[in-house]
């Protein structure tokens, strides 16, 4: 289950933009049937949620809400709308946790409104065109491997890079090296690696050296090598010089690294600055 969705539903954080749902797997010949069926279920869901909020037959209507969410989830999964499926799945879980009827009903109504917005977005657009556009965007998205043993750091790096990169993770240097080699040999290499220094099994310096040795052994050199940015808490000059001698392209300390990291990635030619305010786009 998507933990972020669950957290958003519990905290009343704004839900994801309905216009950004994935439509690439929508089954066009099922769309009309799905729209009508789920539209009817959403009407029932609204009525049941309002009844729970008012305390009218709360137990019966709570059971109805569970059934309706489950039905919408199943229909969405079968019709190629995984984002709606995941939203319903998260809502089912949160509904079981909330003990206040008003809060539970409010959460259900928010989900109902969001699903309706998704349906309206798809209904007023061209499914084929939207699918093609999303496929182009996914194809153009770069790939980054974040090698870091710290969960908070991995989450922060994803928040910085996720708009421009398809982000993958490795939790230590050995796992990162193995993932890099696997994708390189599979013909789908990463465009960028961010690499921490202090990690178990194989530290950042060892990982960097091993990657560059692999490239040398396979005839890859100079600008053809993968771009590697060291992202670490170590700001000691000896550590920095050592990393550059081993072949990293940039070195960014983790403290306040948001724009600094994107600046360095832009210097490597992977992003371009499109406004003076430092908005970024895939280069």
Largest sheet: 5 strands, parallel
Helix share of residues? 55-70%
The largest beta-sheet arranges its strands as: 2-1-3-4-5
Number of strands: 7
Structure, explained:
The two termini are 33 Å apart. With 283 residues, the chain is an alpha/beta fold. It is elongated and about 70 Å long. The chain has eleven helices and seven strands. The protein has two domains: 3-126, HPT domain (Four Helix Bundle (Hemerythrin (Met), subunit A), Up-down Bundle), CATH 1.20.120.160; 141-282, 3-Layer(aba) Sandwich (Rossmann fold), CATH 3.40.50. It has helices spanning 3-11, 31-54, 58-79, 82-97, 101-123, 127-140, 151-161, 173-185, 204-217, 237-246, 258-267; strands spanning 142-147, 165-170, 192-195, 227-232, 250-253, 271-273, 280-282. Helix 1 crosses helix 4 and helix 3 (58-79) packs antiparallel against helix 4. The strands form two sheets. A five-stranded parallel beta sheet has the order 2-1-3-4-5, with helices on both faces.
Based on the model shown, name its key terms.
single chain; alpha/beta; Four Helix Bundle (Hemerythrin (Met), subunit A); 2 domains; 5-stranded parallel β-sheet; two-stranded antiparallel ribbon; 11 helices; 11% strand
């Amino acid at each position: 289950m998507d933990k972020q969705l669950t957290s958003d539903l519990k905290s009343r954080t704004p839900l994801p933009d309905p216009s950004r749902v994935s439509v690439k797997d929508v089954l066009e010949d099922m769309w009309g049937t799905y729209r009508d069926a789920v539209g009817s279920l959403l009407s029932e869901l609204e009525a049941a949620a309002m009844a729970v909020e008012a305390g009218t037959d709360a137990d019966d209507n709570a059971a109805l809400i569970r059934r309706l969410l489950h039905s919408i989830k199943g229909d969405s999964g079968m019709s190629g709308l995984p984002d709606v499926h995941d939203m319903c799945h998260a809502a089912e879980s949160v509904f079981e946790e909330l003990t206040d009827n008003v809060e539970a009903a409010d959460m259900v109504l928010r989900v109902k409104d969001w699903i309706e917005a998704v349906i309206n977005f798809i209904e007023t657009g061209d499914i084929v065109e939207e699918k093609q556009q999303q496929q182009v965007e996914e194809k153009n998205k770069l790939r980054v491997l974040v090698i870091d043993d710290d969960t908070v750091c991995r989450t922060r790096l994803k928040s910085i890079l996720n708009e421009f990169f398809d982000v993958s993770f490795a939790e230590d240097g050995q796992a990162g090296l193995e993932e890099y080699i696997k994708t390189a040999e599979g013909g789908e290499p990463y465009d960028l690696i961010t690499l921490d220094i202090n990690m178990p099994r194989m530290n950042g310096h060892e990982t960097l050296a091993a990657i560059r040795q692999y490239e040398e052994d396979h005839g890859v050199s100079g600008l053809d090598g993968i771009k590697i940015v060291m992202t670490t808490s170590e700001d000691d000059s000896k550590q920095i010089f050592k990393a550059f001698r081993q072949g990293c392209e940039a070195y960014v300390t983790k403290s306040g690294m948001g724009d600094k990291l994107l600046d360095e990635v832009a210097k490597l030619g992977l992003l371009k600055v499109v406004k003076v305010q430092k908005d970024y786009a895939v280069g």
